[in-house]
Design a protein that fits this description.
elongated; four-stranded antiparallel sheet
């Protein structure tokens, strides 16, 4: 069974990708369990006020249907090169480009954050998209108040880096970080349009 955390991640990915992948009506109708009215004093653990709880079999059926649909969605998204996974994180792209701030906003709207590699496996997961779309992507890393010293967006020190030779070199004028198509990093101004890659 899916953990609530994994379900949340997949739901966020779906919200990010839905506008670019939806074509026509969704396949099939998703049956919702029916509910009946309760007396007003019928509130008990497991009850939604005003509704009877679903029978265990109905809940299990709905969960199985959701798991099948999510599994199918994951398969399609993998095939379309829209999602990948590493270290418990799901990385996703909608194939569109935006500057750094618009990328952060789009990822936040989808329930995630801008892709931030914290180890070689996560770097490779982001590189998968960069290579597939043959373009650069911004990372969730910015220059600190000290020129040429970079940190994660939450202000913590970088514990993993993959700088290109002689980078960072912007000396305070390039405060964002982009990933090249070989997986190495470069400091860059934040106003370039790069591939949107989010993590969940």
């Amino acid at each position: 069974m899916l953990s609530p955390r994994l379900f949340h991640k997949i739901l966020g990915v779906a919200f990010l990708l839905f506008p670019c992948c939806a074509q026509g009506k969704p396949a099939g109708n998703f049956p919702l369990a029916s509910f009946a009215h309760l007396p007003e004093d019928g509130i008990d653990q497991g009850f939604i006020p005003g509704f009877l709880p679903m029978v265990d079999n109905e809940v299990e059926d709905v969960i199985r249907q959701l798991e099948r649909r999510i599994s199918r969605l994951e398969g399609v998204l993998h095939l379309e090169k829209m999602i990948t996974e590493s270290g418990g994180k799901i990385f996703a792209t909608n194939g569109k480009r935006a500057d750094f701030h618009a990328t952060m906003k789009k990822c936040k709207e989808a329930g995630g954050s801008i892709a931030t590699p914290r180890n070689p496996g996560e770097n490779d997961a982001i590189l998968y998209f960069v290579k597939s779309f043959n373009t650069y992507a911004y990372l969730g890393i910015k220059e600190s108040l000290i020129p040429s010293k970079f940190q994660f967006l939450d202000g913590t020190q970088l514990t993993y880096t993959n700088w290109y030779l002689h980078e960072p070199s912007g000396k305070g004028e390039e405060e964002c970080v982009e990933m090249y198509t070989d997986g190495t990093w470069n400091d860059r101004k934040c106003n370039q349009n790069h591939l949107i890659v989010c993590q969940f």
